[in-house]
Amino acid sequence: MPSTDAGIGIATERAAWLDWYRRNRARSKRLFDLLSDDAYYSRPIALRHPIVFYEGHLPAFSLNTLLKKALGRPGIDARLEALFARGIDPHESVGGDEPGHARSSWPPRDAVHAFAAEADRRVIEALGHADLDRPGHPLLDRAEAVFAILEHEAMHQETLLYMWHRLPFEQKRGPAGYRPRTNGAPPQQEWIEIPEGRATLGVNRDAIPFGWDNEHAASVIETPPFGIERHDVTNARFLEFVEAGGYREPRWWTSEDFQWIQSEQLTHPLFWERDGDRWSWRAMFGRVPLPLGWPVYVSQAEASAFARWTGARLPTEAEFQRAAYGSPSGERPYPWGSTPPSPATGVFDFSSWDPEPAGTHPAGASAWGVEDLVGNGWEWTATPFAPFPGFRPMASYPEYSADFFDGQHVVMKGASPVTARELLRPTFRNWFRARYPYVYATFRCVRDAAARRP
Ligand SMILES: [Fe+2]
To answer: Are 295 and 236 in contact, with CB atoms under 8 Å apart?
Structure first.
């Protein structure tokens, strides 16, 4: 009986959406609860909004997108809905417009909470009862707006944590018993040769329940053979570059990047801090002696300089895709195959507030034996963020990608410790400016295959 089957299908979907929405909201609340009250109006990253904005923005985006734009329902408070409408996010730009608003223009926290509670009530009602899957509707075809609000909140949780990371430790309360896993010697680095083969970039719209506009459509790239490092570049290895004077040597940098490190007086990665004659790492809730086995977190500009210093380069997006998802018998949904993500296969889904030693999740290795491709830090590529053939901006969030096709942003792939498991699909793309230093992003080097090397 097809109609009954369809009814059961929709009921199951609704239950899954409601569950995801509630999980998202509960996690967002836990993240805001990590902070002391005096952090609320502060702006830990100068080019982003103060923290208050984001507590209002998450429910406002859901209300504006799903209830007002998609379902045509009335709002709650026009002033707050406009105030909280848009950050310079989720992939904000250094050098973009300075977010405005003096301290006095932000509402008291009680007002933000009251607005959020009413927005949640209405969104939950709609997820439970409204007609959300309407074939041919610009925002509700295949329930696009529902997935847009759910993934939007999950992505913001990661960008919130980049901000929390920069706050003074006194303004954060670490969860009881949390200790970063700093033990572990750096793994032995090794080149792995990947044979030539296909890498699929993007996916056709109807092939998965939801993808962002920049993930469509599918195209197949024939990838020449290349060598890739088994492990991410560790702090230990990057320290050699720092100690060799890498930050003082213009030939490892593009001229713009060298100008940048000089004008900012950068001499080491942002997450590193000097402690007398020792290096320490600024972890989420305190400083730890520099964990030599962790993947180094750096900007793409610093990653590129390191790669040049070693005579290698960063992978293209297609090479990442081939190394992560390719196999001798075709492409797979995860580097480790098709079993769902689990703590054994990588560091993601908020399993840690900080990285873990490289090479400690061998069960997550790709078919070629490359480790940590998904998890433990996004991986910078050399590929500028650009649309795939067949791109069209999505009606529920038209500026999501299109505002960033400017040649100034580069693609990151994989996942960090605080990337939600729902985002771990092969086609998900992240992007930032090459000189953006705040993200949980690492890298590994590639080189042309032995036969092609001069
Ligand atoms: Fe947003």
So the answer is: no
What confidence tens digit (pLDDT) does each residue in 396-417 have? 999 999 999 999 999 999 999 9
Residues whose Cβ atom is located within 5 A of ion ligand 1: 89
For residue 451, the model assigns a pLDDT of: 63
366: three-class secondary structure by DSSP: coil
DSSP structure string for 368-410:
T----SSSSEEEEEEEEP-PPTT----TTSTHHHHTT-SSSEE
Distance from the alpha carbon of residue 153 to the mean position of ligand 1, in angstroms? 7
Instruction: Give the C-alpha distances (Å, rounded to integers) separating 49 from 43, 90, 163.
Output: 6, 12, 10
63, 56 contact by CB (below 8 A) = no
Q: What is the pLDDT of residues 99-145, one digit of tens each?
A: 555 666 799 999 999 999 999 999 999 999 999 999 999 999 999 99
Cα 401 to Cα 87, 147, 440: the distances in Å are 14, 16, 20
Distance 59 CA to ligand 1 centre (A): 10
Distance CA 166, CA 154 (A): 20
Q: Can you tell me the distance from the alpha carbon of 181 to that of 355, in angstroms, rounded to the nearest whole number?
A: 8
Q: Is the bond preceding 70 in cis, omega lying within 30 degrees of 0?
A: no
DSSP string, 280-324: EEE-SSSEEE--TTSBPP--HHHHHHHHHHTT-BPPPHHHHHHHH
Q: Does the pLDDT at position 6 exceed 70?
A: no
pTM: 0.94
Q: Where are the alpha helices (DSSP H) in 67-212?
A: 78-83, 109-129, 144-166
Helices 300-309, 235-243: crossing angle, 10 deg rounding: 70
What's the CA-to-centroid distance between 91 and ligand 1, angstroms?
9
Phi, psi of 257 (to 5 degrees): -70, -35
